[in-house]
Design a protein that fits this description.
The chain has about 1150 residues and is mostly beta strands. Among the domains are: about 20-120, no CATH class; about 660-800, Leucine-rich repeat, LRR (right-handed beta-alpha superhelix), CATH 3.80.10.10; about 950-1105, no CATH class. A seven-stranded mixed sheet has the order 84-83-72-71-73-70-85. The longest helix has 16 residues, at about 5-20. It is flat and about 145 Å long. The model is unreliable at about 1-25, about 690-700, about 920-935, about 1015-1020, about 1050-1060 and about 1080 (pLDDT under 50).
Amino acid sequence: MKKGELIGQTLLAIMLLCCNTRLFAETHEGMCGENVNWTLDTETGALNIFSDAETNVRMYDYGDNNSSNKAPWANYRDSITSVTMSDNILNVGTHAFNQCRKLETIKLPANLVSIEERAFMDCRMLKRVEVPAGFKSFHADAFYCCEALAEVNFPEGLEMIAKRAFWGCNSLTEISIPGTVKTLGDLIFYSCYRIEKAVLGEGITELGESMFHGCSALVDLTLPSTLTNISYGAFNCCFALAEVNLPASINAIYDEAFHRCTGIKEIVIPASVEYLGGFSQCNNLEKVIFNGESKLKTVGELAFYQCFKLSTITLPAGVTSVEQQAFEDCDALIGLNIPDGITTISKQVFYKCDNLKDIVLHSGITSIGDGAFQECRSLETLVVPANVTYIGTTAFMSCESLKNVNIPSGVTTIYNSTFQNCKSLPTIALHDNITKISNSAFAYCETLDNITIPASVSEIEERAFYGCSNLKSIEIPSGITELSSYIFCQCTSLAEVKLPSSLQEIKVNAFNQCTALVNTDFLPENLTKINSRAFYYCKGLTSIYIPASVTTIGTEAFYGCTGLTVADIPQTVVSMGNTVFGGCTSLVSYTVPSCVTKINAYEFQNCTSLVSVTLPETITEIGNYAFDGCTSLSSINIPNGVTKLGEHSFDECKSLTTITLPESITTLGMGVFYGCTALESADLSACTLTILPNSSVGEMNGIFQGCSNLKEVKMPKGGVTLLSGTFKDCTALTGVVLPEGVKTVGHSCFLNCTALQSVTLPEGLETIGYQAFRSCKALDNVVLPSTITVLDKEVFRYCSSLSSITIPGGVTRIDDMTFAECTSLSSVSVPSGVTYLGNYAFEDCPMASFTAPAELNTIGGHTFDGCTNLTTLTFPAKVETVGSYAFQDCNNLTDIYWCSNPNFHVYAFIQCNARIHLTLNDADATDFACKNENTYHTVSYTRALPTGKYGTIVLPFVPDAACMANYTFYKLTSADDGTLTFDEVSLPQSNAPYLYKLKSGDAVPLVSTTSVTIGAAMGESSTIDATWAMIPSFSNETIDCASDARKNYYAYSSANHQLNQITETLTVKPYRAYFTTEVSSVAKVRVRTRNGEETIIDAAEIDGLTPEVYYDLNGRRVAHPEKGIYIVNGKKRIL
């Protein structure tokens, strides 16, 4: 852009900013009907709709603002504040001004006849609308949600106000609708909650449904004499409405018409009304007056629901129907008349009328509906007319004061819960026409002590008499084949029962908690099945007689019958469920029927008085917890044929002294004899345990845990896995011989066997688990089979008598606390393959010596803590880590020899006064100088040279006299004329760079015999004239020689026998010396002895000075060579 153009555009912009804002205003225009035009000035917000036609015209109808047919000004609707329409326009089109939320004023045409659907919908700032005299119709949603609309006129001649026309216009306070209106739609003034006055003109005949719903401020209402009904929900939630004058013309007040009009206290019903509904939840309504000779026929559903203060009402004589729930929850209602025309007491019509005491049912009534008088808690007496043939479910449920009620002869069924919870009902007569008593019909009739069931009854459903706690006797009529579930459950006074010979089955919980029953001699001879919990917790039962016809007794059938001493079960019984006699604490002896093949789970659980049980030869299995808690059971003969003892089957049988298992046993469940504290011997030798699913051997999991008197165990044949706690807490057990085939001794297997002196472990054993022999304090000797590979944590912890042990060669870890606090352990043989000594592995063991395995890598924390008898220890070269407090309180330990330089924890030698000796090799010296500060008694450095060879070195200590007798050390002293001169020194300093040479003979280690502190300050470089320096290295490091502009780096080369400059990357080696210089010159090397002799040495004789560079066969440099053939210093080398 040229400079002149830029200046011109800038001036134009300034001019535009300074001009009147009219420059930015827009004017839009177009057509909105045939011969109808519009213009919009967005600055003023004025929309003008006009027509120059000489006749009346109409606007177009439009779609909503999201449609393609939206009003032409819809995109500018937020700028519209006023609308003016010319007088010859007849209508305001559909959606014309929908959501013009800033529209405040509108001038409507003088000839306007209709405002179409949603024309002004959601115009939230529109305050006033005045339609002309000839106006005819407001269509649906015309002013929907016009929140600010406070004034609107309804002229004479108006014919229609459609549904929701003024919905949510909550600024309206007063309306007056002329009688010319023929149609009033639903919900017209819905939620117009500021309307206080509404006048409906003479001539109006019907109101739209929910027309004034939610007009909560409406207090002044005028209804016309022409009105024929009050529509559904018309005045719903008009809370302020207190007085309503209903015109004599109306014939119906429909449902919810005055719902929740909480201000109404009294209402006068005109004589013309035939259908009365709509006063539900008028909870201040106290009085209902019927005018004149009422034509009322029907009181509608929920008509007076929850009219809490309505105490009396007199229904007109012509009423023929009171529909369901009409008076539900009328708390104050104490009585009302039932007109003769009513034949049915409808469903729940008086439900929860708590104070209803007196009601007379006339003879014409034939039916009482479901729940009709439910929870009428004050109702004491009711005479049911003779013509009644139906009394519905829950009809009198929870009539807690009801003492007298009759059942007419036409009623054939007592339905579900009809009299449930009638707590004051002492007796009731059942006539001979009744054939069925349904579910819970008399449940919880707590006072009912006598009831005669007629012979006509062929069916009594479950819970019929549940909880009738005062019922003393009952006779079931002939023909009944089953007693239903819970039929007499919790009938705690029931002592006498007569059952018919036709009875074949007693269902679940039939006599549950019938605590007054003494015996079961009432059971008929044809009975075949007693189901689960049939006599559950019948604590008064002392004996039971079961007829020979019975074949099945269900789970917990007699559970908790604590008074039961004798149980006579016939031999015909082939099936008994779990826990049949569980908790029968008085049962002394029992003979299992010969047809039974299994003692089910929990069958005799907690039968604490059971002394003996006779098991037939037919038994093949004893289920889980079958005799659990039978504390008096002293012996039991398990027949040969039983293959399985279930989990905890004899748990806590504390009187059982001996047990012999037959050869048929193949499976033992977990904890079979757990807690049998009197058990002294167990013979399992005849058993051969089978292979279980997902296991290679049979399992014995905690079967004798807690058998504190067990002294002798004969183990089963074949492979067995001793799982968790097999003999845990068997404190009297002195010896065990494990059979061949055992591969695993599981965790806690012999834990706390404090008397165990010996255990024989078979060859083939592979694993001894966590805490397997922990706290076996009498165990003094264990021979571990050669096949063992795993000793888990704490295996022998607290074995305070164990004196020696040899660990097999397959073990590679001595895990944490394996021998911790074995306070007699004086000898331990650890195989060479062990790599790990765990935390506290030998804590407080009194051994005087310990031979560390050759492969040892890690010594954990506190490993030898408290080993006070140790004097010397030697550890191999592979040890890398020594944990905290490893040698704490080893008070007699004098020397520890290390053939490596491990990573010592900072507290490794806390409270240990032993002298520490290190022998270092090249690998150990890699990061030797970087260790934490520890003081070592001696340090040996195994890097030694052949005779005649020179090398560079940085010693981490001052060498001793023996070392000085074998080696000569030289210090860099000058670099004159490019020649490096080294002079012999009498005693080298530690951590400084030197040239050195073996004087004669074989190579010997460099040794320090004085204390050395590793981590002390390193020596400085040997610097000559600020040009040449010989620098020490203490660890592997990489130097980028090319990037160091200040220095040049040199190393000896065996290729050309001179110092060569290094221009790339130098990887220095530990405890070597390298050369740097600030000049680019090649030096010769001169060595001078203390007597002045000089030698010019060949660089090839200096060991380790030349950094070796590897090239592949194509001449490319290789930074990290792997296996293969390379070129190094001009020669082939194979890695």
